[in-house]
């Protein structure tokens, strides 16, 4: 898809407004002409009253979600119409004149495939930026015993030095050319020679990228995207600049010396990235909580300080020191931080354009800027393609949320001001060591909660209206279950924070728009009410008097707008039916996530973070999540037959519609054979009982030669206390923060 969104026509924007009006009028017409008329004309029994109340509640919530889709979409269309891309010359001049702040790219990784992470790192390393530092945050256990796991970890550890070495030759060449151009042009001579050198360098850089693209093994659509869009796309841009330089030489109109230096700096910056890796689990003084947020927090808390490793009985501890000595960890601070998922890729200009936006005077209040990711094209599985279609729709909706000041951080990628993170940091002292939490991990949707924290601190968030980032979607139902169950868990828990932010803004005199509040509430809670609403519509036999064509009239603009958006994103209009079936089979997954939020609210125990598997092998899905879609089909068929017998044609048609789409979804997205295997594995796992561990033998007395664990005794003074502290440090912290 094109990086810049096409400018929507006036007709498209007009029809968007009409869709919003039709949705609102249809809902009002339904409530007045169907519900109120039934009660005024005929009254109603207690059962009919309760049915009418619940049915109106379900229809209202679903209509509200449809309306929020249309409102966000309309905002996106207005942004696409007004967006004007900043010229390259303006951006180059800005970074040539203004001192650039360091940009640190943090890529959290846990048990990822090294070749997947490698593509992500290359897409970030080839970003054009004056001072780019890339850190791979490896969260795997540092000393695995399994040979296969150990080999994969070693391959991941080699990624940063391998990429650094691959960049060495072009980096040295273009850095030398830049130094020579600066020296030559400073004397007011050699302008034509400098242009010729720049021309040769641009061709050499494009040749280097194209040679890398030729050598790259294309094993799937993700690696194909990397070759075509990251490597060849950047090479084509460099070729275009070379074409302009050649034309300047041929026509005798040379660029100004300052522009020549800007062009030389561009090549030097593209290949200048500094890469390293960091493993927090190698240090006992850092949090080891198993989630992405604390992996990032651990490194953020070290930035801007010098740390000296100290070997203790508990492991290697990091103590802060003033001056660095050999062997110390000197982690420089950074003006900006870019968080990037290990299965995402950035297109050219991502860093320089987003930081350029942040450094404009009118944008000093913006803390986070991102381009909500799109899906990779050409996925081989149906479920990956339809999940990608829903991802592309979300890209549009997030752009519209920015129009209404309701932006949420989408954690796959974002450029963040480090000063904004310092405004929301929480510091706890555990076992004598400070643990800093910038990105909250109270829920498993840490980016959503951090969006509220950033807003409460007085900052804003922005979605940049271009497509500059892409990310993988789960390739099978099992991995999709892990992802969507996590997405559905936590929104309800964050709502009280939203109310607190709104109250704080009102007291400070900042106006809170109703549209912003509605969009934010819908984003955090719509999965809950949509899941329960769909559950009622599927399984409860509502009275036929409650049905009305106006209900369809309220939903029709939503589906038509969605079909139009799908077609604009390169999908089919008929994918609206596939997405509906897709949501049917995801109903138990979403309900499980919502119920987990309710569980956490009552127990106070934080739900474990489940990472989405980023592997090429199929991930088995829980048996219950596979079985429920079959139950939906069977119950829908039973409902259709019963309503047919009672001549309740509306309910019968709706039930049959659900049965057909759910059946197609099971076949297309889960697979009959795969679903049988997963249900069989679920039964086997239920029947299998772990053998009871044997009682531990009494501890043997200390050897006669006096081999005592002296280090632990000297460090803690009590061996049992040392063991308890080692096991409970992160748990105590988690309980305190959850209770708070």
UniProtKB/TrEMBL annotation:
Gene Ontology cellular component annotations, sorted alphabetically: plasma membrane
Subcellular location: Membrane
PANTHER family: CELLULOSE SYNTHASE CATALYTIC SUBUNIT A [UDP-FORMING]
One GO MF term attached to the UniProt entry: hexosyltransferase activity
Record carries keyword Membrane: yes
Domain Glycosyltransferase 2-like: 336-561
One Pfam short name: Glyco_trans_2_3
InterPro entries linked to this entry: Glyco_trans_2-like, Glycosyltr_2/OpgH_subfam, Nucleotide-diphossugar_trans
Protein name in the entry: Glycosyltransferase
Keyword Metal-binding among record annotations: no
Alphabetically ordered keywords of this record: Glycosyltransferase, Membrane, Transferase, Transmembrane, Transmembrane helix
Predominant place of localization: membrane
Native organism taxonomy: Bacteria, Bacillati, Actinomycetota, Actinomycetes, Propionibacteriales
Lipid bilayer topology: Multi-pass membrane protein
Superkingdom per UniProt: Bacteria
